[in-house]
């Protein structure tokens, strides 16, 4: 409820209904391919650390896909997530 109230207040102030309003920075939105590639990279890292069992994945990846879709990720944000995934994979490979 608080979220919706804030959006209504921002709209009344003439601010756009998107984040981040406070920083004034709006990056390039990630396209579908970039998000899907980022999710694939994240999935690989999650399998690597044992968080995701590829033989019994349940609903984790569809839920993460919905989460990412709601977030409206920017290209730089997808790159940050891919960098985290790459670091996980590389660190596990060195062990």
Describe this entry's structure for a reader.
- This protein has 95 residues and is an all-alpha fold.
- 63% of the residues lie in helices and 0% in strands.
- The chain has helices at 2-12, 32-48, 60-71, 75-94.
- Helix 2 (32-48) crosses helix 3 (60-71) and helix 2 runs parallel beside helix 4.
- The protein is elongated, with a radius of gyration of 17 Å.
- The chain starts with a helix and ends with a helix.
Question: What is shown here, in short?
Answer:
The protein is mostly helical.
Secondary-structure blueprint of this entry?
Layout: H1 2-12, H2 32-48, H3 60-71, H4 75-94
Helix pairs in contact: 2-3, 2-4
Terminal Cα separation, in Å?
47 Å
Main beta-sheet annotation: none
CA-atom Rg in angstroms: 17 Å
How are helices and strands ordered from N to C?
Answer: HHHH
The whole-number mean of residue pLDDT values reads 86
Envelope shape: elongated
The tally of helices reads 4
Low-confidence parts, pLDDT < 50 over ≥5 residues?
none
What keywords describe this structure?
95 residues, mainly alpha
């Amino acid at each position: 409820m608080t979220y919706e109230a804030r959006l209504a207040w921002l709209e009344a102030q003439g601010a756009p209904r998107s984040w981040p309003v406070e920083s004034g920075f709006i990056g390039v939105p990630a396209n579908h391919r970039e998000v899907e590639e980022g999710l694939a990279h994240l999935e690989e890292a999650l399998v690597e650390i044992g968080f995701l069992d590829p033989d019994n994945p349940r609903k984790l990846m569809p839920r993460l896909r919905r989460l990412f879709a709601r977030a409206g990720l920017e290209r730089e944000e997808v790159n940050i997530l891919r960098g985290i995934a790459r670091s996980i994979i590389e660190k596990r490979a060195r062990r």
